[in-house]
Amino acid sequence: MFLLPLQTWEGVRIVWVTGHSLLEALEADWFLVMPGGRRGPSRQQLSRSALPSLQTLVGGSCGNGTGLRNRNGSAISLSAPPITALITPEPVRHCRIPELPLDGSLLFEFLFFIYLLVALFIQYINIYKTVWWYPYNHPASCTSLNFHLIDYHLAAFITVMLARRLVWALISEASQVGATSVIHYMVRLVLLTLCGWVLCWTLVNLFRSHSVLNLLFLGYPFGVYVPLCCFHQDSRAQPLPADCDLIRNEVECLKADFNRRIKEVLFNSLFSAYYVAFLPLCFVKSTQYYDMRWSCEHLIMVWINAFVMLTTQLLPPKYCDLLHRSAAHLGKWQKLEHGSYSNAPQHIWSENTIWPQGVLVRRSRCLYKAVGPYNVAVPSDVSHARFYFLFHRPLRLLNLLILIEGSVVCYQLYSLLRSEKWNHTLSMALILFCNYYVLFKLLRDRIVLGRAYSYPLNNYGLKAH
Predict the structure, then answer these.
(1) What is the pLDDT of residue 141?
(2) Among 366, 367, 420, 424, which lies 20 to 30 A Cα-Cα from 160?
(3) DSSP 3-state of 16
């Protein structure tokens, strides 16, 4: 048995007796050797409150397996206790959200198709309107639209392209009702044959009456279209794993699924706006006058409304709650500047450790601070930080959609009050009816979910995950 210096503290050198544990050394008699070699005050003379804490002795210099060093610089084989033994992470509790009514796939596709038809009708009014209140001797006063200038083959082609999602929903619904295989194949054959015949008939007539340059606009979206065969609309919340690797793997799967849904929303909203509001402008004759600013504004409004409607359907509350739960278990790291928190305990980041909030870790010569209650994310992974930012607040996406749709409705109301032309008034009134329904659903979900997430967790009787 011999003495080893442990740590210098306020000019006093603490000597540890080898062969005993660190806690036994702290409880045993202290040998306080002054710089001059004289024996310092005894244990009775030294206040116990002045002793250094265990976190200072262990966490400050030997975190995550680093040992103490003697006077000669050689390391003493002293294993530091794990961080989970020093600080226990707070348990993550999740709220139970109620079952909110969600439109079925067939009903939503039907309503979405009706909205696109209304928007297409409004665009044709903006392009081919007439001054129908003029005297009857005026050549264009007998009708409200210049019907002789409308290309009905183009209108039929656009209608079939807009109905593709509804047709696919009908085929999927027929395969799920439990009907026999013969009836299922007959329904699929009839629908596909009808759509194919209409497309061929319209394309043949369009080839006869229009140039090749105009015809290129018909299939332009298909050049950037990537089929999404699996929409994953029936994702259900499942118990999240406690293992760090399983949590990170689940986050990767959810991130890929979320990106796939967003790509579907972006493509279908742009596809709808292209065929509803942009393609009719490409086939307008050069002698035909129309309000370009109002038509482009209608194009933007159709795209925004289609984006909000598709996002609401493909990202339901249950799915957003699943993303929120996964983000709560993932956590986040905040990168700190060099030199900050130099006196605080720092640890080497480990991928198999659940780090509690406020812990400082080092990885790749950078210092990070744990932000979430549970932290298993990779500190240098930007995608993990982005995932936590988007979903750690469960109502962030819903609030963003309400802000977008509310801004559109307010702008349309303002345009309706200032409109002086009959086509502007009619188009704003029809589009507002559709937007009111979408805004109502968003506000209903926001009120119900806001109450659910603000309800005290102790009243649920839930167990921590």
Answers:
(1) 57
(2) 424
(3) strand
What DSSP letter does each residue of 121-138 carry, written as one string? Answer: HHHHHHHHB--TTS-TTS
Check: CB of residue 266 under 8 Å from CB of residue 228.
Answer: no
CA proximity to 28, closest of 8, 6, 10, 11: 6
Angle (CA) 313-317-318 rounded to 5° is 110
What 8-state DSSP symbol labels residue 375?
A: B
- Taking phi over 0 as left and psi of -120 to 50 as alpha, with beta for the rest, 29 belongs to beta
Residue 180 has what pLDDT? 61
Q: At residue 401, does pLDDT exceed 90?
A: yes
Q: Is 99 helix (H, G, I), strand (E, B) or coil?
A: coil
Distance of CA 19 to the CA centre of its chain: 56
Helix axes 422-454, 105-128, angle to 10 degrees: 150
Q: Judge contact between 425 and 419, C-beta under 8 A.
A: yes
| Strands (E) located in 3-92 | 3-9, 12-17, 32-33, 68-69, 75-76
Strands 347-348, 360-363: pairing is parallel
- pTM here is 0.72
Contacts of residue 26, Cβ cutoff 8 Å, sequence gap at least 6: 51, 54
Neighbours of 57 (CB within 10 A): 22
Pairwise CA distance, residues 211 & 192, whole Å: 28
